[in-house]
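We modelled the chain as a single entity of 215 amino acids. Its sequence is:
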Amino acid sequence: APAVGGETAALISMIERAARDPNVDIDKMERLFTMHERMTAAQAKRAYLAAMSEMQPGLPIVTKRGVISQNVKDDRGAKTGEQKAMTKYARWEDVNEAITPVLAKHGFSLSFRVAQPTEARVIVTGVLGHRDGHCEETAMSLPIDSSGAKNNVQGWGSSVSYGKRYTCFALLNISARGEDDDGKSAEMTPPPADKLDELRKLMAETDTAEGKICE
């Protein structure tokens, strides 16, 4: 980093000297400014990647607290008025609350651009920026959510919320888990010794590579 900073300072000094020289032509000045912009952009990207590397171990696994429900129907297909929980999902407000302190600590900001190219679709673009100037972005095109008898405004808001969650997940490489497992899904429990012996015997009998089984 000090070496890069020294190179940038030297280039700025060169530009200042050239600007004071009436014999320096405009084309040469433009090339110097272009070189300075490239060096600044490269330095900003290095800072972004270094900060991202430091931040990622501290990013949370978001708990899925939202529930998508479906109407329960009787044997004749008529709605009973009861709701049955079908799918869990991570709510955007939970995601935002969990990641904002971590992003701020490492100099990142997360913002979104929303466009509606047609009445039936919305495009959500997530932009992850770093305080040194570099940013990365990813976009997601979605249909307007019409499930659950939503009106157009509610469907638009639901799709935007979905797009925010998943562009955020892509930019930060974070994941969500169910509310009840307390992280047990991430644990790896080795099989008991007698099962390992039995497995090794079977591998020997069938001339199967242990590495293949481990994969």
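As a brief sanity check on the tokenised model: Helices lie at 2-20, 26-55, 92-105, 152-172, 193-205, 210-214. The chain has six helices and seven strands.
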